[in-house]
Amino acid sequence: MKSQQFILVVYDISDDRRRTKLHDALLDFGTPVQYSVFECLLSARQEQRMRGRVKKIIRPKKDRVRFYMLCANCVERVEVTSGKEVLSGQPNSVVVG
User: Fold this and answer.
1) Which residues are CB-neighbours of 2 under 8 A, at least 6 positions away?
2) For residue 91, what is the DSSP state?
3) What is the pLDDT of residues 61-89, one digit of tens each?
4) What is each CA distance from 47 to 44, 54, 56, 73, in whole angstroms?
5) Which residues contact 42 (CB under 8 A, 6 or more apart)?
6) What is the number of helices (H) and of strands (E) in the chain?
7) Quick check: 94 and 32 in contact, CB under 8 A?
8) What are phi and psi of 56, to 5 degrees?
9) Among 32, 38, 81, 85, which residue's Cβ finds the most Cβ atoms within 10 Å?
10) Residue 22, by phi and psi: left (phi above 0), alpha (psi -120 to 50) or beta?
11) What angle do CA 62, 30, 71 make, to 5 degrees?
């Protein structure tokens, strides 16, 4: 199995159209856990594709996107107060696009 990185993607975009476009694009790579917050478990290739999509959508001088790279130990310590665990028991999937 390929090595995967857990990435928390957080964004602040004031333009409704770009924000919606980014949200829809990130659905191909992760799971929204709050609006403007995604949890992603990605291979290096998937991460590269995701960053490329983000770069095409945002306006760097106006929009803010943060990528938090979490280590395996950090992922194990994530606490969820309600709702289902997003990354537990997630089947392997292939993104085609």
Assistant:
1) 43, 44
2) P
3) 999 999 999 987 788 888 888 766 656 54
4) 5, 10, 14, 20
5) 4, 5, 7, 29, 30, 50
6) 3, 4
7) no
8) -70, -25
9) 38
10) alpha
11) 90
